[in-house]
Design goal:
Number of helices: 5
Strand content: 15-25%
Number of strands: 7
Order of helices and strands: HEHEEHEEEEHH
Helix content: 40-55%
Largest sheet: 5 strands, antiparallel
Shape: elongated
Distance between the termini: 28 Å
């Protein structure tokens, strides 16, 4: 392997470590339990149309009740406004319809969702975890390729300079 390729792979490993720190920090700040809202659908709405609307609006049905309670998979103001304005939705509770915000009685659900950032809905947490694992594996692979001996690899990736 040429020194130039090793140099590039070393920088990829360092960039990967920085990205892992940034992703961990974002996870700590932006992933929270989902709020629970109640949605009443319009009469005559087909099961298929309701399921499509649930997907479009990032609504995760709570299996433990039959009262129309959903965990809101994207609690951002534009997505709350989309729930309120959707043509299939007749009424909601735990949402201030005028301001498209959550009310105080919207309590936390079991689903963890992103309150900001690019990851929306129940799949957002899966997408984030895949990104985290892939970044970690690429980082470790690049660090190992640049210094394949165990002692050098551990020093470079985990421990810093040897005494």
């Amino acid at each position: 392997m040429t020194p130039a390729v090793r140099h590039v792979l070393g920088w990829i490993a360092v960039a990967g470590q920085c990205l892992l720190v940034a992703l961990g920090t974002a996870w700590a700040f932006f992933e929270r339990p989902a709020p629970v809202v109640n949605v009443r659908w319009k009469e005559g709405l087909s099961e298929e149309a309701r399921r499509q609307a649930e997907r479009d609006l990032y609504l995760e049905f709570r299996e433990d009740d039959n009262e129309g309670n959903y965990e809101l998979g994207s609690p951002r103001q534009p997505d709350i406004a989309a729930v309120v304005a959707h043509t299939a939705v007749q009424d909601t509770s735990r949402i201030d319809r005028e301001h498209a915000t959550l009310t105080a009685d919207s309590y936390s659900g079991n689903l963890r969702v992103w309150w900001a950032g690019p990851f929306k809905g129940a799949q957002g947490r899966v997408q984030f975890r895949v990104l985290l694992v892939v970044t970690g594996l690429v980082t470790l692979l690049c660090a190992w390729i640049t210094n394949p001996t165990p002692r050098t690899f551990v020093r470079r990736v985990m421990l810093g300079p040897w005494p």
